[in-house]
Give the backbone structure.
Amino acid sequence: MEAPKEQIDAFFHAYEANYNAALEGKDIDLHETMNCFSEQFIESSPVSIICAKNDDTFRENILKGFAFYKKIGTTCMIIQHKEVTQLDDHHAMVKVHWKANYGKGEQGEMMEFDVFYFLRLTDGIRIFAYITGDEQQLLKAHGLV
């Protein structure tokens, strides 16, 4: 069941919009955010590998994450571009190049980074794994934490 590029684009557009709404202090649609992830998923970074469940703990972590980003002055997360690689009829890998604005100083500071998302395309699109860089190191280098 290959997902058309338009469906993947719509998925990430909604993901980005919901993320930014939360950063703007609007009501967080936790159900929509949680629905972007499969029942279990994996996060990998240079710091650790985390296997997580899409449950109440994840819900709490989403709220803590938004609170953290707002605390350090994150004002928006913008998708600059995506590279979609269809792996088979049921899976795709998407490299998303993000640009984030941190409201430090008059105009804030823009940082760019990539995240690789692995999607399951069966019964809707869901993230089952993602790979990030060393976010904490990047934030420290820019004096945000």
